[in-house]
Amino acid sequence: MPEGEEPYTIVWDTENECILYIDQTLLPGRYEQMRCATVDDLARAIRRLEIRGAPALGIAGAMGVALAAVRSRETDLERFLDEVGRAGDLLKGTRPTAVNLAWGIDRVQRKMALTASVAEAKSIAVAEANAIAEEDELTCRRLGGFGEELFPEKCTVLTHCNAGALACRCWGTALGTIRSAIAAGKDVRVIACETRPLNQGSRLTCWELARDGVDVTLIPDSSAAYLMRKGKIDLVVVGADRITQDAVFNKIGTYMHAVTAHHHRIPFYVAAPASTFDLSRREADVTVEERDRSELAYCGDVQLVPDDVNVLNYAFDATPLGLVDAIVTEIGVLRPPYTESFRLLGKNRENRP
Ligand SMILES: CSC[C@@H](O)[C@@H](O)C(=O)COP(=O)(O)O
């Protein structure tokens, strides 16, 4: 990282062989870099959403494998790889819907499996995790460049959750398209949905856009439909946690925006890297993460629901592809019919690591 610049969301600390990350649960009140030196610490940080957002989870998973590797005292290669494999499985279980986490873990483990010694496997693990992090920045900037072409010269864009710099190494996916449109001289205003119950929209999206001087306005999630009806939204752009053959998984509430945008004939776009595609699966094959009742039942120390009432807290929903007007990737903009676009994307991925 160039001196004087802000830290990336998540980086490998070469000197101390550990992970440094911005704790996203503290924002917007505190902007603090934390250290994570064990796989158990990393698993806890991911479960608590201190590290979150699909591409950032991909980097975290990759660095988690590197962490397990450098901390291991095992000298036999086979037993060493087994130990690192168990660490990978533990990390995969922390967030089952966001496919980038498993993707990052598998990619580093595949490279390690080709090595001839423990020492070589350790250095390959660190190198591959760093490569994934560096590629993420290039990917977001490329994706942003393709995405900005979808923006009119002057527009108001609605986004949900946080698919920004904090959800990646930097720049962002959905917010990357917004940043690229602004960098191209377009006049873009952003409407950020608060994203109940954990408020990634108000806490993170508003924080990072306001800091960049972007014109951003916060709304409750429930205002989106009315603003669309009043003609106040020109397009919607969101990120993704997993894209299957038939649906886009993203933060709970995304489907609601897609249906409403479709009703009002407002373009609904998804921005996601190729690593978020899971084209061997369909919507029905994917486990949607359910989170603790406390996230809905409390606001800080204040109880919001009686103890004996059931709470259902899905972290994500799935939007059928029929509601998605385009998917912006680092390879280009995919348009319906997606069967053909996905075939080309799959071919392109075969030629990459
Ligand atoms: C570029 S990140 C895209 C998604 O990961 C984002 O929109 C999202 O749903 C994140 O959910 P979270 O539960 O905060 O990890």
Automatic annotation (TrEMBL):
Q: What is this protein called?
A: Putative methylthioribose-1-phosphate isomerase
Residue positions binding substrate: 52-54, 95, 200, 250-251
Q: Which HAMAP family match?
A: Salvage_MtnA (MF_01678)
Amino-acid biosynthesis as UniProt keyword: yes
NCBIfam families associated with the record: eIF-2B_rel (TIGR00524), PRK05720.1 (NF004326), salvage_mtnA (TIGR00512)
Q: Per the UniProt record, which EC number(s) apply here?
A: 5.3.1.23
Instruction: List the InterPro entries hit by this protein, alphabetically.
Output: IF-2B-related, IF-M1Pi, IF_2B-like_C, Initiation_fac_2B_a/b/d, M1Pi_N, NagB/RpiA_transferase-like
Instruction: Look up the coiled coil feature and give its residue ranges.
Output: none
Q: Which reaction does it catalyse?
A: 5-(methylsulfanyl)-alpha-D-ribose 1-phosphate = 5-(methylsulfanyl)-D-ribulose 1-phosphate
- In chain numbering, where does the site feature Transition state stabilizer fall? 161
Describe the function of this protein.
Catalyzes the interconversion of methylthioribose-1-phosphate (MTR-1-P) into methylthioribulose-1-phosphate (MTRu-1-P).
Keywords, comma-separated and alphabetical: Amino-acid biosynthesis, Initiation factor, Isomerase, Methionine biosynthesis, Protein biosynthesis
Q: Which domain of life is it from?
A: Archaea
The UniProt family comment states:
Belongs to the EIF-2B alpha/beta/delta subunits family. MtnA subfamily.
Q: What class of enzyme is it?
A: isomerase
**What organism does this protein naturally occur in?**
Methanoculleus marisnigri (strain ATCC 35101 / DSM 1498 / JR1)
The active site lies at 241 (proton donor)
Q: Which GO terms describe its molecular function?
A: S-methyl-5-thioribose-1-phosphate isomerase activity; translation initiation factor activity
